[in-house]
UniProtKB/TrEMBL annotation:
Signal peptide segment: 1-22
Domain of life: Eukaryota
This protein's record includes keyword Hydrolase: yes
Annotated ranges, domain Glycosyl hydrolase family 30 beta sandwich: 406-471
GO molecular function terms attached to this record: glucan endo-1,6-beta-glucosidase activity; glucosylceramidase activity
Name of the molecule in the record: glucan endo-1,6-beta-glucosidase
One Pfam family, short name: Glyco_hydro_30C
PANTHER family, sorted: GLUCOSYLCERAMIDASE, LYSOSOMAL ACID GLUCOSYLCERAMIDASE
Organism lineage string: Eukaryota, Fungi, Dikarya, Ascomycota, Pezizomycotina
E.C. number(s) listed in UniProt: 3.2.1.75
Amino acid sequence: MKYQGILVAELLTFVFSTGVVGVSSPASWATSSDGVYKLSSFETPVKGAGNPGSGSTWELQVDDTSSGHKQSITGFGAAVTDATVSSFSALSESQKTALLADLLTTSTDDGVAFSLFRHTIAASDLSGNVYAYSDEVDPDLANFNLKTEGKDMVSWLSQFKSINSAIKVVGSVWSPPGWMKLNGVMDGTTTNNNLDHKYASQFAQYFVKYIQAFKSGGVDVDAITIQNEPLNSQAGYPTMYVAADESTSLIQNNIGPALKSAGLTTEIWAYDHNTDVPAYPQAVLDGAGSFVNTVAWHCYAENNDWGVLTQFHEKNPNVAQYQTECWTSPTNTWYSTIDFVMGPMQNWASGSIAWTLGSDTNNGPHLPGGCGACRGLVVVDTSAGTYSKTLDYYLMGQFSRFVPRGATALATTGSTDYGGGQKFEAMSFVEPDGSRTVVVQNNFGNEVFLTVKFKGGETWSGKVYKESLTTWQLPPASG
């Protein structure tokens, strides 16, 4: 028997292996820039100070007492775009089954067990064409239709949910239907690229109908952002400018009440843009806090500073934060993916999402004005029906495979960034059973002997490979 091309027996196997739950003995795993290690077993750390020899050394301090407990972790993952869906759909059936196991479970040697996905609501820059779920003027939204692209998106996300029902799905709009906007189009101009507020209630109902349609297809949408990058208005692909006070009004007076009236529990996350304008999400929280308790951040600000999230947390200690978009590209440094996970984790983020999950070998499909260098974590050869995994895939897996949902971030000190890419960074976590995970970024061109001192009393030590991301799994503290 098959479910959407996947053997039910295989699905049942996957369901029971969707994450690492606690450890009883120490282990080490590494991914390196030279490709020698790809989520591979590395030298096991030992309890105690160990013998560093004559090589480089480093020390970290971890507060594993209750005073060192920080944010709860929701998960890690990537964006599911139209490019992702069309690329994945070109795979052979056997490759689809293998891919789902890799992405959503630890049943394979390098399975990454992703649990957090952001998807595009209708067209984005990583689409083959511009479309909405309601293309013609339709004030009653009587002709609302997911189109082929939306239905294919639902099909893939429902398969994700079938394998791991606990995944969190976040939907983001790049532009509402053109007829709802002052300029009348989804792309092609920056003039009057704003919502026409006579359609504010229709805009709210657009979200209601989309959430209901996805639910009918087997996908519960856990959260939405009402506009991707609301301060980015440009030609070439779908965008829309939404000011902070406008976002506040739409959420408080239209979208929030519409979701509530429809009996939907989907969360609304604020902002979904760069760290350089924290006043924007603060204004939304201040004005629409009855419907919003989470902020989404991107990484594209000039001189991006993840420390903004800590500053935001200090003002809003009960507000959850996520890094929801940062690109993976062949033009990036080898460690850029580490930076957009490690940095937010060090600064109170509960999850991190890569842009994007999958693409073809030409970093697409994408619109003419869209990102031509946004390579998926998984690259599909659409002619051969096969896929390959990038370095970014493995680097994300160093977090997602070993830090399960429900883990708690621990205050970790000793990280240092000397600039110019010369850095040694770390983050630590504890699971409900007391198991601990330490993720270490070594940007130096030599191995480092690392000592980790836990405030609770234990010390662990061992080697960290050159230019790598290394994950230590440690058992619960003894005694």
